[in-house]
Amino acid sequence: MGKKPIVAGNWKMNKHPEEGSSFVDEMQDLLLDIKHVSVIFAPPFTGLFEMNVDPPFYVAAQNCHWENSGAFTGEISVSMIKDCGAKYVIIGHSERRHIFQESDDWINKKLRSVQSSGLSPIFCVGETIEQRESEQTDKVLRSQLEKGLSGINSIEDCVIAYEPVWAIGTGLTANNKQIELAHQTIRDILSSNYKDVEDIHILYGGSVNSSNAEDLIQVTGVDGFLIGGASLDLKSFSSIARTVEMVQEKKI
Ligand code: PEP
């Protein structure tokens, strides 16, 4: 049996704790019978503690600080996130990189901190439209992966998310060929430093919705999705998870 696909929803700065927890309860009721997909919810920090999930449902934080505690106003550490019952932490999302100027060095520190706590990072990489148009995509992916993972010996517990910046929240998706090539490039880059890279999940993110999910999940090398907008709506998010379940079931 192959890898179990992941459908992860990044709520960004949306949903108050009560809204989040009732959303999660309803999703779990709607998807009681799913067996072949893991579903991850990433609420804002304030909602982390309220999420009541049981596998195959999990919780992720959207960010973290790399220190365990101290004078870091406004930050939250991985051990605090762990206390809330989360299993994953999204690191290096394009909004963190571009709006909050997160550097590869910070991303590397965060990845190390997530790993050393026993949680799993969902490590996001992706090119801007200018970089794609000037044929820099492979170079950018290599640089983000190598700098982000610098000094990290094993990526067994890492999930990678390929998210072209120009496709996030724009309604534009990368086409199937672009996605397949980027996922292959990522796997090749990782393979030069790590073993068993075939077992790593590489998710696609960028305007995934209930209409394009069936097509996108069948692109070679796509092991699931990281979803922004469509993860806020119960009908859309559950329908995407169900679609991935159905496609996976046919493969088994
Ligand atoms: C994201 O924020 O990671 C994302 C992929 O957003 P959207 O699905 O809205 O494009």
Task: Provide a short characterization of the protein structure.
This protein has 252 residues and is of the alpha/beta class. The protein has helices at residues 17-30, 78-83, 94-98, 104-117, 129-133, 137-148, 176-191, 213-216, 234-251; strands at 6-10, 38-42, 57-61, 88-91, 120-125, 159-162, 201-204, 224-227.
Distinct compounds present: phosphoenolpyruvate
Mean pLDDT: 97
Uncertain residue ranges: none
- Count up the helices: 9
Radius of gyration over all CA atoms, rounded: 17 Å
Biggest sheet: strands side by side, in what order? 7-6-5-4-3-2-1-8
Main beta sheet = 8 strands, parallel
Strand content: 5-15%
**What is the distance, rounded to the nearest whole angstrom, between the alpha carbons of the first and last residues?**
7 Å
Oligomer: single chain
Question: How many distinct beta strands?
Answer: 8
Overall 3D geometry? globular
Describe the structure.
- By secondary structure, the chain is α/β, with parallel strands linked by helices.
- Helix content is 37%, strand content 15%.
- The protein is built from nine helices and eight strands.
- The protein has helices at residues 17-30, 78-83, 94-98, 104-117, 129-133, 137-148, 176-191, 213-216, 234-251, and strands spanning 6-10, 38-42, 57-61, 88-91, 120-125, 159-162, 201-204, 224-227.
- The chain has an eight-stranded parallel β-sheet with strand order 7-6-5-4-3-2-1-8, with helices on one face.
- Helix 6 (137-148) crosses helix 7 (176-191).
- The longest helix has 18 residues, at 234-251.
- The termini are close together.
- The relative contact order is 0.16.
- The mean pLDDT is 97.
- The protein binds phosphoenolpyruvate (PEP).
- Phosphoenolpyruvate binds next to strand 8.
